[in-house]
Amino acid sequence: MSLINTIHDPNKYKNRIPTLSERQFLISMIHQEEEEVSSIDSQLVDAQRLAVSQLIVLQESEATLEAAKRVNCLMRVAFGRLRDTSLDIDSLGEMSATWKRPSTPPPQVAFDNLMTEKERLIESHSQSVQLSQINLQRAVQQVYQLEEEVESRRSILAFIDDSIRSLVDRRKQLSCQIDKKKDLIGPRRRIPAEVWALIFNEYIEEEEAVYENNQREGRAGYPTLRLSHVCRFWRETVQAHPILWRYIALPRATEVSRNQWERINHYRLHLGVSLPIAYIIPDSRGGTGSGLRLSDLLSRFPGFQVLELRVSRRNSEAEDLLASLNTSIGELRLIVMALKHVKNLQCIYVQPSIRNS
Which end of the chain, N or C, is more open, meaning fewer C-beta atoms within 10 Å of its C-beta? Predict the structure, then answer.
């Protein structure tokens, strides 16, 4: 088995312990990759700052482009109106050609002044048209340049965003590789999964013993569930050993809630054919009106190694539960409650044949 394959899938051979040279090689690779991660972090900071500045420039350029387009639109309207006026000016020129100059001096002076003003008007209008056309061309060119500038800024910003995504992906890839290598040289790699299961079993036994010694007061600890939520390796280890799921806490109720049903069924599925040690939590409550009967769920178990029920004079939950179960029970524990006036209590087991006779 090559080291490369082990790095690719460190959980493929759970008992594989790297040699000293392999550990040194892995430590060196981890150091190099951590330096690359640090470099990527610096590049990400610079790229993000650059992206922010480019975004500000892009937003300002877009705002300027919108203003330029508005000015361009108004100049087109003004130029159109000037061209419309040119028709009237041309008509005035043609009409003035038919005018006759008066023969008497006073009207001649007024006529000459009128013709001078007409020429000035024509010349002024012609200059205005030319200037308006130049300004319009300049505005169109400015809009074109701003559009190119905005497009360029967008391309730069898109390139920076792609670079940031590439850096982030590379960082995730490196972090994953570093975690795998650290897992290969970590302490849990030196301990086989079977040994972890033994350690978990001792922990569960201690937790359940403390809970039992405290008369099962308060909420159940569910140590197996807690172990399975620590990390993937612990979860896989717990799931691979059905014996760790043998302790099942049951609510003291005829009907259970959806969460209680799913939790108990979760234990059942992981137990497989193993028999559980099930006990009733005295202060627990079920889910009234849920329609999920505890007896229906317990009937799905192949049997019970130990079934611990609580009996009191105020309810018959234990009796109803036993009457509905057809599975085998290795040991039945009945905890009698609220019978302080009874001095001596005996439990007589009667065979069905004797009872029927």
Answer: C
Q: What percent of the chain has pLDDT over 90?
A: 22
Q: How far is residue 43 from each of residues 38, 47, 171, 272, measured CA to CA in Å?
A: 9, 6, 11, 52
Q: What is the pLDDT of residues 175-204, one digit of tens each?
A: 999 998 888 887 766 677 888 889 999 999
Interstrand relation of 328-337 and 247-251 (parallel, antiparallel or unpaired) = unpaired
Q: Extract the runs of DSSP E, i.e. beta strands, from the chain.
A: 247-251, 255-256, 277-281, 292-293, 303-312, 328-337
Q: Which two tokens stand for residue 116?
A: 């001078």
Extract the tokens encoding 174.
Answer: 């490196």
**Percent of residues in the chain assigned helix, strand, coil, to nearest 5:** 65, 10, 25
Distance CA 127, CA 116 (A): 16
Q: What is the DSSP letter of 275?
A: P
- Whole-model pTM? 0.48
Residue owning tokens 């940031």: 164
Residues near 40 by beta carbon (within 8 Å), at least 6 away in sequence: 167, 170, 171, 174
Q: Which of 230, 287, 297, 307 is nearest to 267 (CA)?
A: 297
CA distance 3 to 9: 10
Orientation of helix 232-239 relative to helix 193-213, angle to 10°: 80
Handedness of CA 208, 211, 213, 216 (dihedral sign): negative
3 state SS of 70: helix
Crossing angle of helices 20-96 and 105-185, in 10° steps, is: 170
Cα 199 from Cα 222, distance rounded (Å) = 16
Question: Helix (H, G, I), strand (E, B), or coil: what is residue 315?
Answer: strand
**Cα-atom radius of gyration of the chain, to the nearest Å?**
46
